[in-house]
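During the second year of the project, the team shifted from modelling isolated chains to modelling whole assemblies. The rationale, set out in the original proposal, was that interfaces cannot be judged from single-chain predictions alone. As a representative example for this report, we include one of the complexes processed in the last quarter. Its constituent sequences, exactly as entered into the pipeline, are reproduced here:
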Amino acid sequence: MTEWDIKKLQILRTLNERGTVTATAQVLLMTPSAVSQQLSNLAKQVGVPLLEAHGRRVRLTGAARLLLRHADAVLAQLERADAELAAYAKGEAGEVRVGAFATAVPALVVPAVRALRGAHPGISVRVREAEAGEAYDLLAAGDVDLALSLAAQAPREFEGGRFTQVTLLADPLDVALPRDHPLARTAALRLADLASEPWIFGGSGPWSEITRTACEAAGFVPEQAHSAAGWEAILAMVEAGMGVALVPRMAGAGAFGRSGVAMRELAADRPRRHVIAAVRRGAEASPTVSHVLAALRGATRA
Amino acid sequence: MTEWDIKKLQILRTLNERGTVTATAQVLLMTPSAVSQQLSNLAKQVGVPLLEAHGRRVRLTGAARLLLRHADAVLAQLERADAELAAYAKGEAGEVRVGAFATAVPALVVPAVRALRGAHPGISVRVREAEAGEAYDLLAAGDVDLALSLAAQAPREFEGGRFTQVTLLADPLDVALPRDHPLARTAALRLADLASEPWIFGGSGPWSEITRTACEAAGFVPEQAHSAAGWEAILAMVEAGMGVALVPRMAGAGAFGRSGVAMRELAADRPRRHVIAAVRRGAEASPTVSHVLAALRGATRA
DNA sequence: TCATTCTTTGAAGCAGATCTGAACGATTAC
DNA sequence: GTAATCGTTCAGATCTGCTTCAAAGAATGA
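Output from the structure prediction step:
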């Protein structure tokens, strides 16, 4: 028996509740004949008699009671599926798979998940760490539903492509320089003022080019004295007077408690790093995805 | 959505495994056309899109993955039902409801259930205590599958009726009399020798008449001096010299440790009490029921 | 005991759904 | 650019299930 029929199981269940074929037919808006046929059909499929005559009515056999237990479980499961799908349609259930770069996970995704748990308990988020390029591949392949990536420029919100992108956060880049540096107290610090300094390049992946890009936009080519993947290492080098660095305000907040480092805002044409959320074209219409997007937005303000 | 179709869920599951409509169709021995139609049909029923185009293939949506989890559970449940029904057909699964008189439960049913648990773990027994008359009503109404009752005569094993009866045990009745009674040492004790003794009638239900019936069969009318429902009370009265009594050997084994009571076998035309198992006509062919019957038989020999 | 009534079951006809086969649009590989 | 692959759509054929009608079995009442 490989081809199960839910309707037959429902008929069996109703027969068990009502006790007679006729009453079952009334409840299910069928004729007694149809009920009888379906049940004998089911019995033939399972290979075991389900009904036996008892006076002018029928009685369920042991096999029928056995089958009934499973039928109840199956029908209950289907009702749950129904309810969850209804919730899904309203954006109150479902799973959203998020691909995010490493530092975004604790800074954005985790707070968003936490907020989501309160506001939309039915929505679950599955996180997968992925750098920008990979994240877009995953997004295109359908392995994630939402990708978080970094970029130096805000994306043109092109609607014609395969993705829809929105900027979650435009984090300004501040300059980290030694506390006793002559420029540490300048009134209006501009990037060009640091043209002759030794620079410490940051980060991994696409981020490693951000310092060079920003400096070139300011009109000079920076001298790459050092480079490091983590912000803490970079700030340590700054503190030691080994150079200056561009640090996203989000990452460098408080300079990790290093008193020898001065964080200075840039006065003009301040470079920013953009945290971009991308979904497949059309997916932003999904209520579930849009709830996750809203939660991520909220996390940028916390 | 109230009308679920298992076949559609299987198609969705296979599509998830194989990844393409064509491969799914091959596995399920269908045409890609049919697969496509069934899936779009399912999506329409659910009210949420399940597939979206991805290149020249399709990808499952979040709703599809949500539905898939439930589909897996449902299909697994159905496979279990299938397995259990197959086991049921072989008599290795199922539930047998037994109606039994009170003293049969510890003496016969419990040992049988214990033995059954080892030999046929899939079979479960549901016990319901019922006196003889009630047990047969329950059996006729289909509320139990097997009835245990007591009778003074072995049933004629009539096959034409509604029930099939078999004698599980023909327990001889012994005479309990005070140890110092003159007849306590007679060589061949017959019931007629006790015609002038005061009798203690036993038991409840149909059993209360057994003493009278046996004595009348022996040619005299017993004097009912006392009566009690429990064998222990009866033996206490015998020990006190208040009368003699007929006691089933099974019930009176060891005379409950009363040294003042002598248990004597009857020499001739010894009356017996019969423990009878009855099933509805035809039910003895059920492997499950016959396994329980065999276990009950085995319990009579232990 | 007989008739009535209720229940279930069976046969024939019909309606709906599903499957097949071919054609089309779109995408990928060579 | 061309050919092959994939998914979908449409029309026709087939199948399953439902309804109507009819009959048989079993319980209730007189």
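The interface with chain B takes residues 1, 3-7, 46-48, 52, 54, 59-60, 62-63, 65-67, 70-71, 73-74, 77-78, 80-82, 84-85, 88-89, 93-96, 142, 145, 282, 286, 288-289 of chain A (CB under 8 Å). Residues 7, 30-31, 33-34, 37-38, 41, 53, 55-57 of chain A lie near DNA strand D (CB under 10 Å from a C1').
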